[in-house]
Write a structure and sequence with these properties.
It contains 5 helices and 16 strands. With about 260 residues, the protein is α+β, with helices and mostly antiparallel strands. It has 2 domains: about 90 residues, OB fold (Dihydrolipoamide Acetyltransferase, E2P) (Beta Barrel), CATH 2.40.50.140; about 150 residues, OB fold (Dihydrolipoamide Acetyltransferase, E2P) (Beta Barrel), CATH 2.40.50. Helix 4 packs antiparallel against helix 5. It starts with a strand and ends in a 13-residue tail after the last strand.
Length: about 260
């Protein structure tokens, strides 16, 4: 059954080529009831400009349960998508984001996934120690390249540049015996920053500047940093960092479960 929902967008991941819909951008957020919602699929770059939502904007869209087994996944009717308003104030963002369950233990999170099927959450790491970077594939796989050579109803496919690195956060959680975790980052903002910086800097400096932003800035001692974590369809047991929430510490409310 189709139902209109209002959602505060908190997550946009880097686009990937996808059959039938040209590309997919995993979009997620929190609805008016404080529940996590995943909108999938969305070919974001092909939306009309007035529908291209940003993070921390309220949108309304008609949705129905997706065939995706993840319980938070909904299929959107893109012709109904509307941007309602922005949430710019950090206190207002915190009231919404930190009203959800904030996990601090990866063991507890995995248990909750098995018991309830959750695949999206806010997570508070105990320490954030580093960002690792290793070379990945420099191009999409043959199937993905073929998708980008196709046309959809006469419309040219927009090229998606492959990010040839895999960036991962290294962090610990509050588990007593935690030996550390290393989790892939798929945030759209990291990919966009890579493309912007690499046009003017060497690869070495590009990686350094990304670490400066996503570790030195977003995870600085002046910020109270959280991760938005999610799972994939193919690997539901593996969590990835979909985005970062990092309010200034002096603006961090104390009445929530963070």
């Amino acid at each position: 059954m189709w139902e209109e929902k209002e959602i505060l967008i908190t997550v946009k991941t880097y686009p990937h080529p996808q059959p039938q819909v040209k590309e997919v951008v995993c979009t997620a957020g929190i609805d008016r009831n404080g529940e996590w919602i995943r909108l999938f699929p969305i070919p974001f770059r092909y939306l009309d400009n007035y529908k291209k939502y940003k993070k921390y904007q309220w949108i309304s869209v008609t949705t129905k349960r997706a065939t995706d087994h993840r319980k938070e996944s909904f299929t959107p009717r893109l012709d109904t998508l509307k941007i309602i308003s922005d949430v710019a104030d950090w206190d207002d963002k915190c009231k919404i984001v930190l009203s959800t369950i904030v996990y601090k233990s990866m063991d507890e999170l995995q248990m909750a996934r098995k018991q309830t099927g959750i695949s999206l959450c806010t997570f508070k790491p105990s320490t954030i120690d580093d960002i690792t970077c290793k070379k990945g594939d420099i191009d999409w796989n043959p199937k993905q390249r073929e998708i980008m050579r196709q046309q959809f109803l006469g419309e040219e496919i927009k090229k998606i540049e492959k990010i040839p690195y895999e960036f991962r956060y290294k962090f610990t959680c509050i588990d007593k015996d935690c030996k550390g975790h290393e989790v892939l980052i798929t945030d759209w903002e990291l990919g966009a920053l890579y493309l912007k910086v690499k046009a003017n800097f060497s690869e070495e400096d590009t990686v350094r500047l990304i670490k400066q932003k996503f570790l030195g800035d977003l995870c600085s001692p002046k910020r109270d940093t959280y991760f938005y974590l999610g799972t994939t369809i193919r690997h539901p047991q593996n969590w990835i960092v979909l985005g970062v929430f990092s309010p200034p510490k002096q603006q961090q409310p104390t009445l929530f479960n963070a």
